[in-house]
Amino acid sequence: MQWWCSAQGKAWTWAWQAYPGVWLVVLAVAVGYYLLTRGAPRSARTGVATGWLGVFGVWLALDWPLGPLAAGYLASAHAVQFMLLAMASAPLILVGVRAAGTERIPTTGVMGGVIRLLTQPLVAAVFFNIVVLSSHVSGVVDALMTSQLGAFAIDIAWLVSALCFWWPTIVPVPVRPRFNALFQILYLFMGTLFHTVIAIIMLMVDFPLYRVYELAPPMTGLSAMDDLQIAGGVMEVAGLLIVFSIITVRFFRWANRAEREERERADREYGAAMRPDVPNAARGPLSAHPGGSR
């Protein structure tokens, strides 16, 4: 019995396989998420449910059939697995953690220090992109995907680095006053460039990049090149849709909040100018104009 999905070089069958290692990891993720969200207020139920959807995505990405397909048969399945773990499940889990409240997140001691370090935006972005780049290098993929420990290392590195990457933009602990909405938008744009570049390379090369998928027993009518280009398309299109959707929502939220704050400030100044009991010096810019107190 295999404990983790890896390339086996055997003909593919749709017969179900058990992967106990995958179940243990998914169970650990589920238990950790439960401990961080238990006792959440009723108003947070939607957010917590969103996080459970992310936990489900982790199971879907790692277990049969996507797990073994991604490990040793299809580069396109490998790309779907990456998108599920790094670009969907990780942020969904963090949305649930934020919705439930952040009181249980350690802020002191060793664990608090580790969280502060790994979720510092620059550290998180560098960590995530190093993992993304190295896990798509031909030699690394061909060497690691043929062993259960190697495939495990890639899958877990994707999930952990993605949680670190998305954390600063979703979970407000630790507090970073200077990391405002505009910086977060720039962070998301710059921090996801590497996987876009990798996708473009997959779409433009004239030869298969990965021996493990090129030499895998065929399980579809796709050639190795067709499979690689589908993988590039998945990473390019799905990645851009996710990132730019989030950036767009955040930009309009920031713009609406800035407009609302400016309107409230103007209303306060106008109200002060209209009050006869407020000295002229305290009435603000409106009092400087003739007739400004009318």
Task: Draw up the topology in text.
Layout: H1 20-37, H2 45-62, H3 66-72, H4 75-100, H5 109-118, H6 121-134, H7 138-144, H8 148-170, H9 181-191, H10 193-204, H11 211-214, H12 224-274
Helix pairs in contact: 1-2, 2-4, 3-4, 4-8, 4-12, 6-8, 8-9, 9-12, 10-12
Give me some keywords for this one:
single chain; 294 residues; disordered C terminus
How would you describe this protein?
- This protein is an all-alpha fold and 294 residues long.
- The longest helix is centred in the C-terminal third of the chain and has 51 residues, at 224-274.
- The radius of gyration is 25 Å and the shape is elongated.
- It is 68% helix and 0% strand.
- Helix 3 (66-72) packs across helix 4 (75-100), helix 4 (75-100) packs parallel to helix 12 (224-274) and helix 10 (193-204) runs antiparallel to helix 12.
Summarize the structure.
The protein is mostly helical and 294 residues long. It has helices at 20-37, 45-62, 66-72, 75-100, 109-118, 121-134, 138-144, 148-170, 181-191, 193-204, 211-214, 224-274. The model is unreliable at 282-294 (pLDDT under 50).
What's the total helix number?
12
Portion in helices: 55-70%
What coarse outline follows from CA principal-axis ratios? elongated
Distance between the termini: 85 Å
**What is the ordering of alpha helices and beta strands?**
HHHHHHHHHHHH
Please tally the β strands and state the result: 0
